[in-house]
Design goal:
This protein is an alpha/beta fold. The chain has a domain at about 1-170 and about 225-250: NAD(P)-binding Rossmann-like Domain (Rossmann fold). The chain has helices at about 10-20, 55-60, 80-85, 85-105, 140-160, 190-200, 225-240, 260-270, 295-300, 310-320, and strands at about 1-5, 25-30, 45-50, 70, 110-115, 125-130, 160-165, 170, 205, 220, 220-225, 245-250, 260, 275-280, 290. α1 (about 10-20) crosses α7 (about 225-240) and α4 runs parallel beside α5.
Length: about 325
């Protein structure tokens, strides 16, 4: 098959492109490189364009045909979304609409959408399945939920088949070491932790140790980026088979949680280095526990996770951080 991956130069996108190419598909990457990396585009041709520029997008894709689109273009910093909400609605909602409108005109009927656990807002239960209420508490989560609603409308009005994948905490790196997680600014725990071990005098910041959890730190569901990438391929296969029509939503996580201090302990075991850290105040809106139920993805998509152990996840990330590619 021939697939377009919007945001394929980014962290998860690059792993997705590699996974599709390994499976024998032809892949084209569309990215404006605002947060993605040109050097990460190794398994397909790059179309450099901004999805918020409707006319430029159409010109760039003129004459192109694809069997499906994987859409990962998004701004994703929660704090920034609170300060710059227009930016998030313009990029994450209007930009996605531009892609969807092009797809309709081009006759492309299969769409995989990268969503987030941020659509749930404050969790009402420790393990979150797809029936959990969606009440986002920031513009980032709201922008993703708006697209989910658009996809349901598009299924009814235009016959668009779509699969929405709600990530929990993406982490890790391809075990080959060629691609991994590198953001500017970096806001995720694991890369910040590993960076603190590599940068002299650097200390990790832990936000809060007074949560109602066994060790007082937040518990999160960490899902390896390669496992996430494989779920996208399974979603495309599901739609390609014609067995499932309309708009579908799946939560993606390991189904188990690790506290910040558990991640720190695992990092010491993997790297042999002591993690120096300081305790800071809680961040507004951070729930104590956020863990996914991925039973639906396992049952319907046949999705399984290869990386369930935190030490195994950290080993792949540490290998990437110590590689010349980082």
């Amino acid at each position: 098959m021939r697939y377009l991956v919007c945001g394929g130069a980014g962290y998860i996108g690059a792993h997705m492109v590699k996974d599709l190419a390994r499976a024998g598909h032809e892949v084209v990457v569309l990215d404006n490189l605002s947060t993605g990396h040109r050097e990460a585009v190794r398994w397909g041709r790059l179309i450099e364009v901004d999805i918020t520029d409707r006319l430029a997008l159409r010109r760039a894709l003129q004459g192109e045909h694809f069997d499906g689109v994987v859409h990962m273009c998004a701004k994703s910093l929660v704090g920034e979304s609170v300060v710059e909400p227009y930016l998030y609605y313009q990029n994450n909602v209007m930009g996605t609409l531009n892609v969807l409108e092009w797809m309709r005109e081009a006759g492309v009927r299969r769409f995989v959408f990268s969503s987030t656990a941020a659509v749930f807002g404050h969790p009402q239960q420790d393990t979150i399945d797809e029936t959990h209420p969606t009440e986002p508490i920031n513009p980032y989560g709201q922008s993703k939920l708006m697209v989910e609603q658009i996809l349901r409308s598009a299924a009814d009005a235009y016959g668009l088949d779509s699969v929405t994948l709600r990530y929990f905490n993406a982490c890790g790196a391809d075990p080959d070491g060629g691609i991994g997680e590198s953001h500017q600014p970096e806001t995720h725990l694991i890369p910040n932790l590993l960076n603190s071990l590599l940068e002299p005098g650097s200390r990790l910041k832990v936000f809060g140790e007074d949560y109602p959890t066994p060790d007082g730190t937040c518990i999160r569901d960490y899902v390896h980026v390669n496992d996430l990438a494989r779920a996208h391929g399974l979603a495309l296969e599901l739609m390609q088979s014609g067995e499932s029509r309309g708009a579908h939503v799946f939560n993606l996580g390991n189904g188990s949680g690790f506290s910040v201090k558990q991640v720190i302990a695992a990092a010491k075991q993997v790297t042999g280095k002591e993690v120096e850290y300081d305790i800071a105040e809680r961040r507004a809106g951070d729930p104590a526990v956020l863990v996914a139920s991925s039973a639906k993805a396992r049952q319907v998509l046949g999705w399984t996770t290869e990386f369930d152990d935190m030490s195994a996840i950290l080993q792949t990330a540490w290998h990437w951080h110590c590689s010349p590619s980082y």
